[in-house]
Amino acid sequence: MVTVTRDPDRFRVLPGEGYDGVVQVSAGGVYGSGVLLNGGRAVLTSAHVLDGSDVVTVRMDTPAGRISVSATQYTRHPLYDAANGNSDLALVWLAESAPVSAERSMLYRHDDEVGSDISLIGYGLTGEGLTGHVDGGNVDPAKRLVENRFDTTGEALKEALGRGITWDPLLGSQLIIDFDNGSDTNDALGVLMGLNDTGRGSAEGLIAPGDSGGPAFIDDKVAGVATYTASLSRNGQSPDVNDTQDSSFGEIAGFQRVSYYQQWIDQSLRAADPNAPTRSEDVETTIREGDEGIQLVYFLLEFHGERDHPDQWLSVDYATRDGTATAGEDYLAVADTLILYPGEAQAAIVVEVIGDDTPEPDETFYLDVFNPQGGSFGGGVAQLTAVRTITDDDGWIA
């Protein structure tokens, strides 16, 4: 990350201080960044980070130190278009569940991102806004945090730049930020579009090489995935402080808009899970906790009504709730929105159960499902609740 200040350590995110689910993704001798998603088995990153590579490794900073987890497979978005920065997304599946300490992230599912403040996390090159990133200056990459704001969309920027530009972003799919230093002269989107806003002060920063695939968070939810930087000019005016594409003041950066791609992300995750139940009779309501690591337990949500039209999305919100089991000790709490897309009548929700070797009684936790959109639970019911039992296998005696 390139920052306003010359004190880059100010922006380092150390293990144990949050964002432990932001990871380094290495492939083919290069690296980028990524973010661990709910369920603890998949990392969202950029497709171009994985170009031409058969071997992918994910490195995580944990309170116990940095660990490496190999990937079993990955999939890139089928419409990935490097030339225009479109659909630059990939999902990497881990060979094993991530450590409990690695924070899982939800997707930001609303389309109101423009104008929102964001936190950018990644392992990219460091530097300072006046001079740009420093090549080779991050030999042992550290995870860093900067702030910015989603300023506009790809199509709005393209329209402002005029017909001479060959870049063709998919409508609604890209979010754009600029790197401000408080000067109107280097306010990129002010110069290029008339969007005059000189930024967030000393906290503002921009992505740099190695940050590709890293998340942009709105309220701790993944709203964007870092894709590219650019140094642009319009009508002979260049806001770039040094006219070199190096993540310096006056440049812009583009992000894949997660709300636009949420259907591909959700359905890819579902398709990759061979253990998710697809019939109610296959759902197991108990799970042995195991002595260590993570075990997975599933809930299956089914819709038996009629859609108003074939392309309608149906959704519910859901959240785990303690019974005799305690979130963070016995299982990992989760709260999110589940969407049934056109053609879908069911989907599974996975919860991670934490193994230990402490003798204890069997314990329970709940999943509450509420706020149905596009359908109802029937009979005036406002909430559905299911329970799961974690069975002890450590010799507890009553």
From TrEMBL:
Residues 1-270 form the Peptidase S1 domain. PROSITE patterns: TRYPSIN_DOM. The keyword Iron does not apply. GO terms for cellular component: membrane. The keyword S-adenosyl-L-methionine does not apply. Keywords: Calcium, Ion transport, Repeat, Signal, Transport. One of its GO terms (molecular function) is serine-type endopeptidase activity. GO terms for biological process: cell communication; metal ion transport; proteolysis. This is Sodium:calcium exchanger. It comes from Vreelandella rituensis.
